[in-house]
Input
Amino acid sequence: MIWCGGTLPSAEYLKDSFARGMSGWLDIEFVGCDAESLTVRMPVTDRVHQPFGRLHGGASVVLAETAGSVAAAFCVDPATSACVGMEINANHIRPVRDGFVYATAKAEALGRTSQVWSIHIRDEAEKLVCVSRLTVAVIPIDRK
Output
């Protein structure tokens, strides 16, 4: 079960957080969460296309890492710990040319010093686009 710290941040906090950095550049936005998962989405536009007009694999990896990292951060006490990416991999299953893709992160292991997340990216028809696995380190906040 995730959300070890209790309640989720406010909608305003999430919107502001996603507007900065890479997430903002790619228009990634928070969609929702439940006790087992967190979901974000990204529009598939020219901004995230590879030269042949398909969703770039690197954009899928950014989307996956965003979903997993945010979910991981909700599983630690932000006053004492931070989560940082250690390793990510991705298997690209099918192309997407437009619309939205949705990344859902689910915890595989929530340890004291590391976490492992599975992230499935699906298109608007709910067809599997990419499967990713993210490992994060849980570190003391003063090391971040």
In short: The chain has a mean pLDDT of 91. Residues 11-143 form a domain with the Thiol Ester Dehydrase; Chain A fold (CATH 3.10.129.10).
